[in-house]
């Protein structure tokens, strides 16, 4: 196969961290942790298989019990969580990789059947859809509106979780303010009805995300902290309002901290908000492209368009999920494995997780059929 030369394979750098290429494995919730949120040895295998990524951003991990979203997601607020994650980071480091950990509080995206707790949120506005729990899909509950003390405690929980992540061997953390979870709920006008300085005008709606990020940076150093946002994303019932004002304002408030990066989910270089954020942000931008097709050519085309539009690193989710050797495949122009969606979440086990073949271990078509034959409970 012919090797392809592109900026995707050039070395890059974050503060204090050299990256061998510009391809980032995006955080992907896979529900393979223990019920209490402790990472498992299977997860160590999964991430070590993908250690050729320039950077791995590990899946969303909760900073406190009430922040839990779904069953079997990871957490990072107890010694057992730290020890479990240490097995993962050791395995990735032994395979030559580097990892950040995403910190995520679900806010109203949670359920008492999963966490044993009533979810909290900026305002008592329920998720307008069902949510998966250990008992199957259940109607969402109305969250409890966070008090001023809840806000202060949650900020402190994020900072403590960041310290735990460093103790677990991560190079840094990513604060998750996207995809309709707690921090994004504070940004959005339809989920944040507050009048106390954390809601209303743009400057107030960005305050919670800014304060969490500032506290995490103060705890572990700004150069070890990234922030993920997804401007205009409507997942989990979000309607932001004033999107083109929100994100440049957030970039301007945090731009002087010296953060490791700003991560833009569902980045479209043709949109005004992308151009405004790129202009406002003085540091590294990780951009997660909207892929029209998950193919070698589709991934390369979308990624190179973002690099041309000022992105520094490219985050890919499903392509890394199905291709542990994605960097090699893109470099050689080799075809990609197809994602087996039914093994994505809630099913546990190795199927659709650690059994995707690398180029030198491609099974026969009969073997692939056998692998996909039985659903893992």
UniProtKB/TrEMBL annotation:
NADH:flavin oxidoreductase/NADH oxidase N-terminal domain mapped to chain residues: 8-334
Domain of life: Bacteria
Pfam families (UniProt xref): Oxidored_FMN
Matching PANTHER family: NADH OXIDOREDUCTASE-RELATED, NADPH DEHYDROGENASE 2-RELATED
Protein name per its UniProtKB record: Alkene reductase
């Amino acid at each position: 196969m012919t090797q392809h030369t592109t900026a995707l394979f050039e070395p890059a750098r974050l503060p204090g961290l050299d990256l061998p290429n510009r391809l980032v494995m995006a955080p992907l919730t896979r529900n393979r942790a223990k019920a209490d949120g402790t990472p498992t040895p299977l997860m160590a295998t999964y991430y070590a298989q993908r250690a050729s990524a320039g950077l791995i951003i590990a899946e969303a991990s909760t900073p406190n019990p009430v922040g839990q979203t779904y069953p079997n997601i990871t957490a990072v607020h107890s010694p057992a969580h730290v020890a479990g994650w240490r097995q993962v980071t050791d395995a990735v480091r032994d395979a030559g990789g580097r990892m950040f950990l995403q910190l995520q509080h679900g806010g109203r995206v949670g359920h008492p059947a999963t966490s044993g707790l009533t979810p909290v949120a900026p305002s008592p506005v329920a998720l307008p859809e069902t949510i998966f729990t250990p008992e199957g899909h259940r109607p969402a509950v109305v969250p409890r509106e966070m008090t001023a003390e809840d806000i202060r405690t949650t900020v402190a929980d994020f900072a403590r979780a960041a310290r735990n992540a460093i103790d677990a061997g991560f190079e840094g953390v990513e604060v998750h303010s996207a995809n309709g979870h707690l921090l994004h709920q504070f940004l959005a006008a339809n989920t944040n009805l507050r009048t106390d300085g954390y809601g209303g005008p743009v400057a107030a709606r960005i305050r919670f995300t800014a304060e969490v990020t500032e506290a995490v940076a103060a705890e572990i150093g700004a150069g070890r902290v990234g922030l993920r946002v997804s401007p205009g994303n409507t997942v989990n019932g979000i309607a932001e309002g004033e999107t083109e004002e929100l994100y440049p304002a957030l970039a301007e408030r945090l731009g002087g901290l010296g953060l490791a990066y700003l991560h833009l989910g569902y980045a479209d270089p043709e949109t005004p908000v992308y151009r405004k954020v790129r202009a406002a942000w003085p540091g590294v931008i990780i951009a997660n492209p909207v892929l029209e097709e998950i193919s070698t050519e589709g991934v390369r085309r979308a990624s190179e368009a973002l690099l041309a539009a000022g992105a520094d690193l490219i985050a890919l989710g499903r392509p890394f999920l199905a291709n542990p050797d994605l960097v090699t495949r893109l470099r050689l122009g080799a075809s990609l494995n197809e994602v087996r969606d039914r093994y994505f979440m809630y099913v546990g086990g190795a199927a659709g997780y650690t059994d995707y073949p690398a180029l030198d271990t491609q099974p026969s078509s009969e073997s692939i059929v056998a692998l996909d034959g039985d659903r893992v409970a």
